[in-house]
Specification:
The protein is globular, with a radius of gyration of 17 Å. The protein has 9 helices and 2 strands. It has a two-stranded parallel sheet. By secondary structure, the protein is mainly alpha-helical. It starts with 5 loop residues before the first strand and ends in a 10-residue tail after the last strand.
Length: about 180
């Protein structure tokens, strides 16, 4: 790790404190999506990889960090987590996972893609309609979290230092970090 200070972007505003009812509603939406995923048996590791991919596309650094860690905690390898950004070129993913990533890319970029029929058909070729619906619920939820995170920058990941550097890693910041369960 470099000895130079890490510069953390400023928090723009504390969305959770300023819109607490909506923030709670968003947490309930996320919980409902997780229940749908549980009901159809979508693996937790894949859920986190999909959230990671959506967060990469939306540019939410807090969520990229969180879902990378969550995927690691769910047993995903560093190699697979790192390859999510280039999933089309990586050979570490199954047909079902690739269909989930293609669906993620199309849905998150809906303003550009209009979610093509062939992407939905490819997803339905390897997932049931109920599973695709659960994945869509997940994408709606993470997209909302990403929009809050990117716009408000109300949460930020703390730099992860190597164990021996943890006590001495300099951090330059103008405000204390705020964290949320996304």
């Amino acid at each position: 790790m470099s000895s130079e200070p890490i510069v953390l972007p400023d928090i723009r505003f504390d969305f959770d404190a300023l819109a607490p009812k909506f923030s709670r509603a968003l947490a309930h939406l996320d919980h409902a999506a997780e229940l749908e995923l549980d009901a159809v048996g979508i693996p937790v590791g894949l859920r986190n990889l999909v959230k990671l991919r959506a967060s990469q596309l939306n540019g939410c650094s807090y969520c990229v960090d969180m879902h990378s860690r969550d995927a690691r905690d769910a047993g995903e390898s560093f190699q697979r987590i790192a390859a999510v950004a280039v999933w089309q070129e990586a050979h570490f993913f199954t047909a079902r996972e690739r269909a989930a990533f293609a669906f993620t890319d199309a849905v998150i970029r809906a303003s550009e893609t209009r979610v093509p029929d062939e992407v939905v058909a490819d997803a339905l070729a390897v997932y049931s309609e109920t599973e695709v619906s659960a994945l869509l619920a997940l994408l709606v939820s993470i997209n909302a979290w990403n929009l809050v995170g990117v716009t408000a920058r109300c949460w930020r990941a703390e730099p992860e230092a190597a164990a021996e550097d943890a006590a001495t890693a300099p951090v330059a910041e103008s405000e204390p970090a705020v964290t949320a369960a996304v």
